[in-house]
Known about the structure:
There is one protein chain. The protein is mainly α. It folds into three domains: 2-89; 108-151; 156-283, CBS-domain (Roll), CATH 3.10.580. It contains 13 helices and five strands. It has helices spanning 2-21, 25-42, 48-59, 69-89, 108-122, 130-151, 154-157, 171-181, 201-204, 212-216, 243-248, 269-277, 280-283, and strands at residues 185-189, 195-200, 233-234, 253-257, 263-268. The strands form two sheets. The chain has a three-stranded mixed sheet. A two-stranded antiparallel ribbon has the order 1-2. Strand 1 and strand 2 form a beta hairpin. The two termini are 47 Å apart.
Amino acid sequence: xWSVIGGNTFGTLVGIACAVWIGPPWLAAGVAVGGAIxxxxxxxxxxxxxxxxxxxxxxxxxxxxxxAFVPVALNSALLVLxxxxxxxxTRRPHPAPQPAADAVLPNAxxxxxAIDAAVARYGEVLDIDRTTLRGLLEDAQTQAYQxxxxxxxxxxxxxxxxQSARPDESVAQALLRLEEHGIKALPVIDKHRQVIGIVxxxxxxxxxxxxxxxxxxxxxxxxxxxxxxxxxxxxxRHLSELIPLFAGSGHHHxxxxxxxxxxxxxxxxxxxxxxxxRPSQQATD
Length: 285
């Protein structure tokens, strides 16, 4: 609204001034258009028709200052009012409502500072207010993240050198493997590499009275400690399908299987976060 009303009004005022104070029409026309653009930039209401309004005032040799307010400013206000009424009637509010910021997006202050720095480096005045520009950028970032979630598959981000355990292995062997590799969970597989359970360090040390050294020496089989109802995902599933599993069900490690239900990898919460924050072209390398 400000660009329409302010741009047209200031442009007309500059045109009238040039028509009054500058003699040759060809010179007045050039000064009027250039002056109108400069004034609109300073007033942050850059509006292309404002330059035409300045030129019109010179060509018609308008010298009455009231012309800038009635009919120009008045008609501009009526035009804006009509547009706002149309948006309200069609339920398309202006300016457009801003999308809710995603947790992984910059906050409002960070994004505003970044916009100011980018515009200053760009070195030109953009005919768009900061709020609309920020909303546009936030929406673009949200769409980019959604596209990334829908394009990346489990096979692109999973750890392929996954460590596993056999059900007949001892607790001591499983604990040693967890400590050697610095991991927190082991999928338990059968002779066909199909996942039949999962075991964590907490599962293996479930007896609070047992010393760690005693647990490492335990010959108890992993099958006695493992969780048998284990969530697995296919290597072809998209990253967007993993978010609810990690966010809502409390999972921290999810085994990945192929079309034959054999273990081929493991995905953790850290893998998902890393995939969200790295460049999209690297996510599928």
